[in-house]
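Appendix B. Extra example for self-study. Work through it before the problem class; the solution is given directly after the inputs so you can check yourself.
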Amino acid sequence: MKRVALIGATGSIGRQALEILGAHSELELVAAASGSTPIEGLAPLTQTGGDLTGLLERAEPDVVLNAVVGFAGLPVTLWALERGVDLALANKESLVAAGELALAARERGGGRLLPVDSEHSAAFQCLEGRSPEQVDSLVLTASGGPFRGRTREELEDVTPEEALAHPTWSMGPKITIDSATLANKGLELIEAHFLFGLPYEQIEVVVHPTSVVHALARFRDGAALAHLGYPDMRVPISFALTYPDRAATPVAPLDLAGGLTLEFHAPDLETFPLLALAREAGERGGTYPCAYNAANEVAVAAFLEGRLPFLRIADAVEETLAAVDGAAARDLEDLVEADREARRLTEQRAAIA
Ligand code: NAD
Ligand code: MG
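Solution. C-alpha coordinates for the complete assembly:
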Protein backbone atom coordinates (compact mmCIF):
# COMPACT_ATOMS: atom_id res chain seq x y z
CA MET A 1 0.00 0.00 0.00
CA LYS A 2 1.15 3.50 -0.87
CA ARG A 3 -0.34 6.34 1.19
CA VAL A 4 -1.15 9.28 -1.08
CA ALA A 5 -1.89 12.90 -0.15
CA LEU A 6 -3.58 14.81 -2.99
CA ILE A 7 -3.26 18.57 -2.72
CA GLY A 8 -5.33 20.49 -5.27
CA ALA A 9 -7.87 17.66 -5.51
CA THR A 10 -10.62 19.68 -7.23
CA GLY A 11 -8.57 20.89 -10.20
CA SER A 12 -7.90 19.40 -13.61
CA ILE A 13 -4.90 17.37 -12.41
CA GLY A 14 -6.60 16.59 -9.09
CA ARG A 15 -9.69 15.08 -10.75
CA GLN A 16 -7.61 12.95 -13.09
CA ALA A 17 -5.50 11.81 -10.13
CA LEU A 18 -8.69 10.71 -8.33
CA GLU A 19 -9.53 8.57 -11.35
CA ILE A 20 -6.09 6.91 -11.23
CA LEU A 21 -6.36 6.42 -7.45
CA GLY A 22 -9.79 4.84 -7.84
CA ALA A 23 -8.41 2.26 -10.26
CA HIS A 24 -5.56 1.07 -8.01
CA SER A 25 -6.32 -0.55 -4.69
CA GLU A 26 -2.63 -0.35 -3.73
CA LEU A 27 -2.89 3.46 -3.79
CA GLU A 28 -4.64 4.69 -0.63
CA LEU A 29 -5.87 8.28 -0.57
CA VAL A 30 -5.15 9.36 3.01
CA ALA A 31 -5.56 13.13 2.66
CA ALA A 32 -6.97 15.61 0.16
CA ALA A 33 -7.00 19.38 0.03
CA SER A 34 -8.46 22.12 -2.14
CA GLY A 35 -8.09 25.88 -2.32
CA SER A 36 -11.73 26.92 -1.88
CA THR A 37 -14.20 24.16 -2.89
CA PRO A 38 -15.38 22.03 0.08
CA ILE A 39 -14.27 18.37 -0.18
CA GLU A 40 -15.34 16.74 3.10
CA GLY A 41 -15.58 12.96 2.78
CA LEU A 42 -13.25 12.71 -0.20
CA ALA A 43 -10.49 11.27 2.03
CA PRO A 44 -10.09 10.41 5.73
CA LEU A 45 -8.38 13.80 6.21
CA THR A 46 -9.47 16.82 4.20
CA GLN A 47 -8.85 20.54 4.30
CA THR A 48 -9.90 23.55 2.25
CA GLY A 49 -7.46 26.45 2.14
CA GLY A 50 -5.10 27.59 4.88
CA ASP A 51 -1.76 26.11 5.89
CA LEU A 52 -1.74 22.57 4.53
CA THR A 53 1.43 21.36 6.22
CA GLY A 54 -0.45 20.37 9.40
CA LEU A 55 -2.70 18.15 7.30
CA LEU A 56 0.37 16.54 5.70
CA GLU A 57 1.96 15.94 9.14
CA ARG A 58 -1.16 14.12 10.33
CA ALA A 59 -1.59 12.15 7.10
CA GLU A 60 1.93 10.65 7.08
CA PRO A 61 1.85 10.07 3.30
CA ASP A 62 4.36 8.03 1.29
CA VAL A 63 3.79 10.31 -1.68
CA VAL A 64 2.39 13.82 -2.01
CA LEU A 65 0.84 14.82 -5.33
CA ASN A 66 1.10 18.60 -5.47
CA ALA A 67 -1.57 19.70 -7.96
CA VAL A 68 -2.06 23.20 -6.58
CA VAL A 69 -1.83 26.01 -9.14
CA GLY A 70 0.71 28.78 -8.64
CA PHE A 71 3.20 29.91 -6.00
CA ALA A 72 0.60 28.92 -3.37
CA GLY A 73 1.87 25.35 -3.81
CA LEU A 74 5.31 26.15 -2.42
CA PRO A 75 4.81 25.07 1.24
CA VAL A 76 3.58 21.64 0.07
CA THR A 77 6.58 21.18 -2.23
CA LEU A 78 9.04 22.16 0.49
CA TRP A 79 7.29 20.05 3.12
CA ALA A 80 7.64 16.86 1.06
CA LEU A 81 11.20 17.54 -0.14
CA GLU A 82 12.45 18.45 3.34
CA ARG A 83 11.03 15.25 4.88
CA GLY A 84 12.12 12.87 2.16
CA VAL A 85 8.52 12.07 1.28
CA ASP A 86 8.17 11.31 -2.44
CA LEU A 87 6.86 14.35 -4.30
CA ALA A 88 4.80 13.90 -7.47
CA LEU A 89 5.03 17.46 -8.75
CA ALA A 90 2.46 19.02 -11.06
CA ASN A 91 2.86 22.43 -9.41
CA LYS A 92 5.74 23.64 -11.60
CA GLU A 93 5.48 27.21 -10.28
CA SER A 94 6.93 26.19 -6.90
CA LEU A 95 10.02 24.62 -8.46
CA VAL A 96 10.51 27.55 -10.84
CA ALA A 97 10.22 30.10 -8.04
CA ALA A 98 12.19 28.24 -5.39
CA GLY A 99 14.62 26.19 -7.54
CA GLU A 100 17.77 26.28 -5.40
CA LEU A 101 15.90 26.18 -2.07
CA ALA A 102 13.81 23.24 -3.28
CA LEU A 103 16.85 21.29 -4.46
CA ALA A 104 18.63 21.94 -1.17
CA ALA A 105 15.55 20.64 0.67
CA ARG A 106 15.54 17.52 -1.51
CA GLU A 107 19.24 17.01 -0.77
CA ARG A 108 18.54 17.11 2.97
CA GLY A 109 15.36 15.02 2.75
CA GLY A 110 16.64 12.41 0.29
CA GLY A 111 13.23 11.63 -1.24
CA ARG A 112 12.21 11.36 -4.87
CA LEU A 113 11.06 14.26 -7.00
CA LEU A 114 8.84 12.78 -9.71
CA PRO A 115 7.63 15.23 -12.34
CA VAL A 116 3.98 15.11 -13.36
CA ASP A 117 4.28 17.76 -16.06
CA SER A 118 4.01 15.63 -19.22
CA GLU A 119 7.20 16.91 -20.89
CA HIS A 120 9.21 16.41 -17.70
CA SER A 121 7.79 12.98 -17.00
CA ALA A 122 8.84 12.13 -20.56
CA ALA A 123 12.30 13.67 -20.12
CA PHE A 124 12.73 11.85 -16.80
CA GLN A 125 12.10 8.57 -18.61
CA CYS A 126 14.44 9.42 -21.51
CA LEU A 127 17.22 10.47 -19.12
CA GLU A 128 16.77 7.87 -16.37
CA GLY A 129 19.97 5.90 -15.80
CA ARG A 130 22.12 8.13 -18.06
CA SER A 131 25.02 10.14 -16.72
CA PRO A 132 25.03 13.88 -17.50
CA GLU A 133 28.14 13.67 -19.70
CA GLN A 134 26.29 11.32 -22.10
CA VAL A 135 23.61 13.95 -22.71
CA ASP A 136 23.98 16.38 -25.57
CA SER A 137 20.70 18.21 -25.07
CA LEU A 138 17.10 17.93 -24.00
CA VAL A 139 14.16 18.96 -26.17
CA LEU A 140 10.79 20.00 -24.72
CA THR A 141 7.86 20.17 -27.11
CA ALA A 142 5.16 22.84 -27.13
CA SER A 143 1.80 22.53 -28.88
CA GLY A 144 2.01 26.23 -29.72
CA GLY A 145 -1.38 26.82 -28.10
CA PRO A 146 -4.51 28.25 -29.73
CA PHE A 147 -2.67 31.21 -31.31
CA ARG A 148 0.12 29.35 -33.09
CA GLY A 149 0.84 30.97 -36.46
CA ARG A 150 -0.76 34.31 -35.59
CA THR A 151 0.93 37.70 -35.81
CA ARG A 152 1.07 40.25 -33.00
CA GLU A 153 -1.57 42.39 -34.73
CA GLU A 154 -3.90 39.38 -34.76
CA LEU A 155 -3.42 38.95 -31.02
CA GLU A 156 -4.22 42.50 -29.99
CA ASP A 157 -7.89 41.95 -29.22
CA VAL A 158 -8.08 38.26 -28.29
CA THR A 159 -10.47 37.51 -25.44
CA PRO A 160 -10.01 35.18 -22.45
CA GLU A 161 -12.57 32.83 -24.09
CA GLU A 162 -10.43 32.53 -27.23
CA ALA A 163 -7.25 32.06 -25.19
CA LEU A 164 -8.94 29.36 -23.08
CA ALA A 165 -9.64 27.15 -26.13
CA HIS A 166 -6.55 24.93 -26.14
CA PRO A 167 -6.14 22.67 -29.20
CA THR A 168 -4.67 19.53 -27.58
CA TRP A 169 -4.90 19.68 -23.75
CA SER A 170 -7.86 20.31 -21.42
CA MET A 171 -6.43 22.02 -18.33
CA GLY A 172 -7.12 24.60 -15.60
CA PRO A 173 -7.49 28.25 -16.68
CA LYS A 174 -4.08 29.57 -15.55
CA ILE A 175 -1.98 26.99 -17.37
CA THR A 176 -4.23 27.28 -20.43
CA ILE A 177 -3.47 31.01 -20.70
CA ASP A 178 0.21 30.20 -20.08
CA SER A 179 0.02 27.82 -23.05
CA ALA A 180 -1.45 30.55 -25.25
CA THR A 181 1.38 33.00 -24.34
CA LEU A 182 4.10 30.27 -24.26
CA ALA A 183 4.83 31.28 -20.64
CA ASN A 184 4.00 27.65 -19.82
CA LYS A 185 6.93 26.49 -21.92
CA GLY A 186 9.05 29.21 -20.31
CA LEU A 187 8.17 27.89 -16.86
CA GLU A 188 8.85 24.36 -18.11
CA LEU A 189 12.28 25.36 -19.40
CA ILE A 190 13.23 26.57 -15.91
CA GLU A 191 11.53 23.53 -14.36
CA ALA A 192 13.65 21.23 -16.57
CA HIS A 193 16.85 23.07 -15.64
CA PHE A 194 16.23 22.40 -11.94
CA LEU A 195 14.87 18.86 -12.35
CA PHE A 196 17.64 17.53 -14.57
CA GLY A 197 20.57 19.80 -13.69
CA LEU A 198 21.12 20.80 -17.32
CA PRO A 199 22.39 24.27 -18.27
CA TYR A 200 19.92 26.35 -20.27
CA GLU A 201 21.93 26.15 -23.49
CA GLN A 202 21.37 22.37 -23.42
CA ILE A 203 17.57 22.70 -23.27
CA GLU A 204 15.70 23.43 -26.48
CA VAL A 205 12.03 24.16 -27.03
CA VAL A 206 10.35 23.20 -30.31
CA VAL A 207 6.77 23.59 -31.45
CA HIS A 208 5.05 20.29 -32.19
CA PRO A 209 1.32 20.89 -32.83
CA THR A 210 -0.08 17.40 -32.19
CA SER A 211 1.58 16.94 -28.75
CA VAL A 212 2.45 13.30 -29.39
CA VAL A 213 6.19 13.59 -28.73
CA HIS A 214 6.44 15.02 -25.20
CA ALA A 215 10.22 15.28 -24.87
CA LEU A 216 13.36 14.01 -26.53
CA ALA A 217 16.93 13.58 -25.28
CA ARG A 218 19.88 13.76 -27.65
CA PHE A 219 23.02 11.88 -26.63
CA ARG A 220 26.69 12.41 -27.49
CA ASP A 221 26.77 9.39 -29.81
CA GLY A 222 24.20 10.96 -32.14
CA ALA A 223 21.28 8.90 -30.86
CA ALA A 224 18.08 10.55 -29.64
CA LEU A 225 15.41 8.99 -27.42
CA ALA A 226 11.89 10.36 -27.57
CA HIS A 227 8.81 9.76 -25.43
CA LEU A 228 5.56 9.44 -27.40
CA GLY A 229 1.93 9.02 -26.46
CA TYR A 230 -1.45 10.65 -26.91
CA PRO A 231 -1.78 13.86 -24.90
CA ASP A 232 -3.46 12.62 -21.73
CA MET A 233 -2.31 13.70 -18.26
CA ARG A 234 -3.45 10.40 -16.72
CA VAL A 235 -0.26 8.86 -18.14
CA PRO A 236 2.27 11.07 -16.27
CA ILE A 237 0.04 11.16 -13.16
CA SER A 238 -0.10 7.36 -13.09
CA PHE A 239 3.62 7.08 -13.82
CA ALA A 240 4.50 9.31 -10.85
CA LEU A 241 2.04 7.70 -8.43
CA THR A 242 2.94 4.10 -9.29
CA TYR A 243 6.67 4.63 -9.93
CA PRO A 244 8.65 2.46 -10.51
CA ASP A 245 5.86 0.00 -11.41
CA ARG A 246 4.34 1.76 -14.47
CA ALA A 247 0.78 0.58 -13.93
CA ALA A 248 -1.80 0.20 -16.70
CA THR A 249 -4.02 3.18 -17.62
CA PRO A 250 -7.17 3.42 -19.80
CA VAL A 251 -5.21 5.48 -22.36
CA ALA A 252 -5.09 3.88 -25.83
CA PRO A 253 -1.76 2.62 -27.16
CA LEU A 254 -0.27 4.72 -29.93
CA ASP A 255 -1.67 3.86 -33.37
CA LEU A 256 1.07 4.34 -35.94
CA ALA A 257 -0.45 2.61 -38.97
CA GLY A 258 -3.54 4.83 -38.66
CA GLY A 259 -1.35 7.84 -39.44
CA LEU A 260 0.53 10.18 -37.15
CA THR A 261 1.80 13.69 -37.87
CA LEU A 262 5.16 14.45 -36.30
CA GLU A 263 5.93 18.01 -37.33
CA PHE A 264 8.38 20.28 -35.52
CA HIS A 265 9.43 23.89 -35.93
CA ALA A 266 11.08 26.71 -34.05
CA PRO A 267 8.90 28.79 -31.72
CA ASP A 268 8.03 32.35 -32.74
CA LEU A 269 9.83 34.25 -29.98
CA GLU A 270 8.83 37.67 -31.27
CA THR A 271 5.11 37.03 -31.19
CA PHE A 272 5.38 35.11 -27.90
CA PRO A 273 8.11 36.93 -25.92
CA LEU A 274 7.37 35.14 -22.62
CA LEU A 275 9.40 32.12 -23.71
CA ALA A 276 12.54 34.19 -24.36
CA LEU A 277 11.94 36.17 -21.16
CA ALA A 278 11.86 32.93 -19.16
CA ARG A 279 15.13 31.78 -20.67
CA GLU A 280 16.69 35.12 -19.77
CA ALA A 281 15.29 34.99 -16.22
CA GLY A 282 16.55 31.44 -15.81
CA GLU A 283 20.03 32.30 -17.06
CA ARG A 284 20.24 35.32 -14.77
CA GLY A 285 19.28 33.07 -11.87
CA GLY A 286 18.80 34.39 -8.32
CA THR A 287 15.18 35.38 -7.77
CA TYR A 288 14.59 36.32 -11.42
CA PRO A 289 12.67 33.07 -12.05
CA CYS A 290 10.60 33.78 -8.91
CA ALA A 291 9.84 37.30 -10.18
CA TYR A 292 9.01 35.96 -13.66
CA ASN A 293 6.53 33.53 -12.17
CA ALA A 294 4.96 36.05 -9.79
CA ALA A 295 4.60 38.71 -12.50
CA ASN A 296 3.08 36.16 -14.85
CA GLU A 297 0.56 34.95 -12.24
CA VAL A 298 -0.60 38.51 -11.61
CA ALA A 299 -0.74 39.44 -15.30
CA VAL A 300 -2.65 36.26 -16.24
CA ALA A 301 -5.20 36.90 -13.47
CA ALA A 302 -5.61 40.48 -14.74
CA PHE A 303 -6.10 39.22 -18.31
CA LEU A 304 -8.71 36.66 -17.19
CA GLU A 305 -10.54 39.43 -15.31
CA GLY A 306 -10.55 41.59 -18.45
CA ARG A 307 -8.22 44.19 -16.90
CA LEU A 308 -5.21 43.57 -19.17
CA PRO A 309 -5.00 42.97 -22.94
CA PHE A 310 -3.38 39.70 -24.05
CA LEU A 311 -0.17 41.25 -25.41
CA ARG A 312 0.27 43.28 -22.21
CA ILE A 313 0.84 40.07 -20.20
CA ALA A 314 4.35 39.78 -21.62
CA ASP A 315 4.96 43.54 -21.36
CA ALA A 316 4.00 43.50 -17.69
CA VAL A 317 6.35 40.57 -16.98
CA GLU A 318 9.19 42.22 -18.90
CA GLU A 319 8.75 45.51 -17.05
CA THR A 320 8.67 43.77 -13.67
CA LEU A 321 11.83 41.80 -14.47
CA ALA A 322 13.54 45.06 -15.40
CA ALA A 323 12.51 46.62 -12.08
CA VAL A 324 13.46 43.89 -9.55
CA ASP A 325 17.00 43.34 -8.23
CA GLY A 326 16.86 39.57 -8.68
CA ALA A 327 19.26 38.93 -5.78
CA ALA A 328 19.46 35.27 -4.74
CA ALA A 329 17.22 34.21 -1.85
CA ARG A 330 19.17 33.05 1.21
CA ASP A 331 16.05 31.56 2.74
CA LEU A 332 12.32 31.16 2.35
CA GLU A 333 11.69 34.61 3.82
CA ASP A 334 13.80 36.24 1.08
CA LEU A 335 11.97 34.24 -1.56
CA VAL A 336 8.52 35.16 -0.26
CA GLU A 337 9.63 38.81 -0.24
CA ALA A 338 10.87 38.57 -3.86
CA ASP A 339 7.53 37.04 -4.87
CA ARG A 340 5.60 39.77 -3.02
CA GLU A 341 7.65 42.60 -4.55
CA ALA A 342 7.22 41.26 -8.09
CA ARG A 343 3.47 40.94 -7.52
CA ARG A 344 3.26 44.50 -6.22
CA LEU A 345 5.14 45.88 -9.24
CA THR A 346 3.02 43.91 -11.71
CA GLU A 347 -0.25 44.93 -10.01
CA GLN A 348 0.75 48.58 -10.47
CA ARG A 349 1.37 47.98 -14.17
CA ALA A 350 -1.86 46.04 -14.64
CA ALA A 351 -3.76 48.84 -12.92
CA ILE A 352 -2.52 51.47 -15.41
CA ALA A 353 -2.70 49.27 -18.54
P1 NAD B 1 -6.73 23.97 -11.67
O1 NAD B 1 -6.94 25.43 -11.63
O2 NAD B 1 -7.66 23.12 -12.46
O3 NAD B 1 -6.72 23.39 -10.18
C1 NAD B 1 -5.95 23.97 -9.16
C2 NAD B 1 -6.17 23.27 -7.85
O4 NAD B 1 -5.39 23.97 -6.85
C3 NAD B 1 -7.61 23.29 -7.35
O5 NAD B 1 -7.88 22.07 -6.69
C4 NAD B 1 -7.62 24.43 -6.32
O6 NAD B 1 -8.61 24.28 -5.33
C5 NAD B 1 -6.22 24.26 -5.75
N1 NAD B 1 -5.70 25.46 -5.10
C6 NAD B 1 -5.62 26.71 -5.62
N2 NAD B 1 -5.07 27.54 -4.72
C7 NAD B 1 -4.81 26.81 -3.61
C8 NAD B 1 -4.28 27.10 -2.35
N3 NAD B 1 -3.90 28.33 -2.00
N4 NAD B 1 -4.14 26.07 -1.46
C9 NAD B 1 -4.53 24.82 -1.80
N5 NAD B 1 -5.06 24.51 -2.96
C10 NAD B 1 -5.20 25.48 -3.86
O7 NAD B 1 -5.22 23.74 -12.15
P2 NAD B 1 -4.60 22.49 -12.93
O8 NAD B 1 -4.75 22.69 -14.38
O9 NAD B 1 -5.06 21.22 -12.30
O10 NAD B 1 -3.05 22.70 -12.62
C11 NAD B 1 -2.47 22.40 -11.36
C12 NAD B 1 -0.96 22.46 -11.49
O11 NAD B 1 -0.54 21.43 -12.39
C13 NAD B 1 -0.45 23.77 -12.09
O12 NAD B 1 0.78 24.10 -11.50
C14 NAD B 1 -0.25 23.44 -13.56
O13 NAD B 1 0.76 24.23 -14.15
C15 NAD B 1 0.20 21.99 -13.47
N6 NAD B 1 -0.07 21.22 -14.68
C16 NAD B 1 -1.35 21.03 -15.09
C17 NAD B 1 -1.61 20.30 -16.24
C18 NAD B 1 -3.02 20.04 -16.67
O14 NAD B 1 -3.21 19.28 -17.63
N7 NAD B 1 -4.02 20.60 -16.05
C19 NAD B 1 -0.55 19.77 -17.00
C20 NAD B 1 0.75 19.99 -16.54
C21 NAD B 1 0.99 20.71 -15.38
MG1 MG C 1 3.63 20.52 -19.62
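Self-check: The longest helix spans residues 332-352. If your reasoning did not lead you there, revisit section 3.
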